[in-house]
Write a structure and sequence with these properties.
alpha+beta; about 40% helix; five-stranded mixed beta sheet; about 325 residues; Lambda Exonuclease, Chain A
Length: about 325
């Protein structure tokens, strides 16, 4: 690359990484509905996400959000009067507490006359088609209802009566947009906060390592933590260093059991190639050599067992 090109891309990358959304460490309403317990635990623990490079697509979404805020602010004629204001943009609401700490976030839009919370999502064509057919993910639903809880608890602009998500095309025309809505459900919002507090309690009592060990790896392609850990476990078990298809190495990602006690092996033992917990005592009926920690033999992924077609037993 030329010197100017390096400087040009450097400014963009620096702007993405320094944006408040990228620097945010505390969990927010947009993340509480994540389906992966491990993701929530990492976030509650203050862990930074594994590096995935400059988040260009989210940056596009942020830029569109900024423009939408200007358009809806300009559409208001109320002058700040509750009885005459139609659109409330980027309003900060507190959706509840986790471990006694208030959790706040900025709602994209609130339509005062109808009491409707509206969230903008800027998505690609595949995601747009999926949401048109199946509606939003549970994470997006939870986020919308949490903002509804925030407006209802605050009371300043009136209670939420409905929640909506506007899926706007990142690559397409506005006529392709998908607008989804449903009545506000306070029970859904409350259940999400109960789950988050349960995970926070577990994290506080047993610590991050034990909490993660008690939570299964998820299959969400957007979960950067589980993707990174699956690859690390697969490579430690002998999978190809060049395999990028997690489904192909799924067999290698299953947590092995200790040959001594039968319990699951911790990640540290797997990484060291051990098949037994170092603290497991030899069984009286089993020779010492049989339970001594030994490197786990790598199992080639995708190799089918050989079947003897002539064996009639």
């Amino acid at each position: 690359m030329t010197g100017v090109e390096d400087l040009y891309l450097g400014v963009i990358k620096d702007g993405i990484t320094r944006h408040p959304r990228s620097l945010q460490k505390r969990i927010g309403p947009s993340e509480i509905g994540r389906p992966c317990d491990r993701w929530i635990l990492h976030k509650l623990n203050g862990d930074g996400e594994p590096d995935r490079g400059p988040a260009w697509k989210p940056a596009i979404g942020t830029a569109v959000h900024d423009q939408l805020e200007r358009w809806f602010d300009a559409a208001n004629r109320g002058g700040g009067d509750v009885d005459h204001t139609e659109w409330i943009t980027e309003w900060e609401v507190t959706v509840g507490t986790i471990g006694g700490q208030p959790i706040a976030g900025h709602s994209d839009l609130f339509h005062v006359p109808t009491g409707t919370v509206i969230d903008h999502k800027i998505v690609g064509p595949k995601q747009l088609a999926k949401y048109r057919l199946h509606g939003p993910s549970e994470q997006y639903r939870v986020q919308a209802h949490l903002y509804g809880k925030g407006f209802t608890d605050d009371g300043g602009w009136g209670p939420a009566r409905a929640v909506a998500i506007a899926f706007l095309p990142r690559d397409g025309e506005l006529s392709q947009a998908v607008f989804w809505s449903e009545p506000y459900d306070p029970h859904l919002a409350a259940a999400a906060m109960v789950r988050a507090n349960r995970l926070h309690t577990m994290l506080t009592v047993v610590g991050i390592d034990a909490a993660l060990a008690a939570s299964a790896l998820c299959d969400d392609q957007w979960c950067t933590w589980c993707r990174a850990e699956k690859r690390a476990v697969a490579r430690a078990a002998g999978a190809s260093l060049f395999a990028d298809d997690l489904a192909a190495s799924a067999a290698a990602t299953v947590t092995p059991a200790c040959t001594g006690c039968g319990g699951p092996l911790p990640r540290s033992a797997i990484t060291e190639g051990l098949a037994t917990h170092p603290t497991c005592e030899p069984s009286p009926q089993t020779p010492v050599a049989a339970v001594r920690p030994v490197p786990a033999a790598p199992v080639p992924a995708g190799v089918a067992p050989v079947i003897n077609l002539f064996d009639k037993r």
